[in-house]
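User: I'm preparing a small set of examples for a lab meeting where we compare how different chains pack in three dimensions. I only have the primary sequence for this one, and I'd like the structure in token form so I can line it up with the others. Please keep the answer compact; I'll paste it straight into my notes.
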Amino acid sequence: MTGNVTDPDRTVIDLITGTWRAQALSAAAELRLADHVADGHRTLPQLVRRTGVAADPMLRLMRLLVALEVFDGDADGYGLTAISHRLRTDVPGSMNALCRLYGREFHKAWGSLPAALRTGKSGFATAFGRSIHDYLATVPDAGERFQAAMAAGSTFFAEVPSAVDLSDAKVVVDVAGGTGQLLAAVLDAYPRLHGILVEREGMVPLAEAELGKRFPADRFDVVAEDIFTGLPAHADVYLLSRVLQDWPDAQCLRLLSNCRDAMTGHAARLLIVERVVADSGGDLLPLLWDLHLFVAAGGGERTERQYRDLFRAANLRWEGTRDLALETTLLIASPEPETDRTERQLLEGDSDGSPPRRSL
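Assistant: Understood. Below is the structure token output for the 360-residue chain.
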């Protein structure tokens, strides 16, 4: 990026005002402007009546959103663009919930970035006084909104079934699979597969409801289980999507080891969806999400070398990667025979309680 900057002052302004653009988009989602325009409320006075926003600030907001190509038209009649269509709440893959989450909780968490950098405590915990996990578990509707936002940012799930041939598999386990978006994509592509989704107890009804909309009851099971203590055994495929990014190496190794212990036979596979930080640091989205994960939960993205080391410590064989949309990567592993656990113990932490290594 540095070599292409011809006007550093303008670049600084563009970067620093990026949050204003994000907040304008979030406000559009909160006010359901795309829904209103789609329903025929296209003029400025009509949008004012539908939202309860005063005319002057509404005009300013819409003027900016038109300049950002979120909408087109003017006060006499606004229209949807491909971007605002994704903000509608009634379309498959709506990104409305994602924009609201990033404009609310995550925006506030990022405001605590300087303090988080100094203390090592996540920006979310600094801003809200509790971890994101506690927040989602206790604040009404927060967990459901979070899952909707995660699903909206998961368009790459549709590419997973074609990235690896699963035609010989019979059972697939989605570990901490949320409401089952990835599992559903795999079950859609392979009608003979039976799916098992593992989640915390509070998520089970949501996952059952979402999967039940798309599949008969005999195609899937949803079980409440602690993923760090045990997993359903003897499946052919295990899925981990954006789970490892939330945890330090000790917990990741424990989870990967649980997957390895549950896998029987060398034909079993572990498929992991994450953003991988390139050695060159050139891909922007993994770098943005790496810092965002620190802000949100104290987590982070990893390099391929770090994943290889984790796999080796968990007695998993590295089978390769596949590129997915939005700079996301599918990592593929299979079980190695059980060997010496010395490296696993080093990563999990010494027996005297000293902290585990974070960087492999």
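A couple of notes for your slides: The first strand starts at residue 71 and ends at 74. The two ends are 28 Å apart (CA to CA).

User: Perfect, thanks.
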